[in-house]
Amino acid sequence: MTNWATNHGVTYPVLIDPDRSTWNKYGLGYIPHNVVLDPDMIVRYTNYGYSESTIINTIETWLPTYDCQAGDVNMDGRITPQDALCAFRIFLNGGMVPPDDTGCNTNCAVDNADVSCVKNGVTPEDALCIFRAFLNHREPPIDCCP
Q: For residue 29, what are the domain limits?
């Protein structure tokens, strides 16, 4: 199956199901069989064969959208010291939101925290830039910081 996906240029995740447990749950008797689940795990598309445009349209229809704005790490619509603190916590946790950090755990946190002009991961300079934006009464999104 992996070779088939590679040969056909498939860029989305492909489930390998050697014990056929997923096949038994969703399969209709044909290979390949595509199933698209929404974020709530509700089946939004199921069909056999391969129709890339249909699969992509289904995914785009049910994919959640977020209003990500640079500097607004906690996504409250403003630049605050909390955003700078979230950026620093992300840096301290190796570029990921700490799992126990509910104040910074948003869908855009890491992207919103990396405000440098060169996207190089979240750094202490990003946190400082966000704090300066707060002190200067800036609104999101903030421009990149040199």
A: 2-62
CB 28 within 8 A of CB 35: no
Domain count for the chain: 2
Distance CA 59, CA 53 (A): 10
Three-state SS letters, 38-55: CCCCCEEEEEECCCHHHH
Q: Tell me the residue type at 121.
A: G
In terms of C-beta density within 10 A (0-12 exposed, 13-18 middle, 19 or more buried), how is residue 36 classed? buried
For 59-98, the pLDDT digits (tens) are 888 877 777 899 999 989 999 999 999 999 999 999 989 8
Neighbours of 4 (CB within 10 A): 12
Same domain, 82 and 124: yes
Coil/strand/helix, residue 3: helix
> Which amino acid is present at 103?
G
How far is C-alpha 69 from the geometric centre of its chain's CA atoms? 14
CA distances (Å), origin 96, targets 37, 70, 88, 114: 25, 16, 10, 11
Rounded to whole angstroms, the maximal C-alpha distance in the chain is: 62
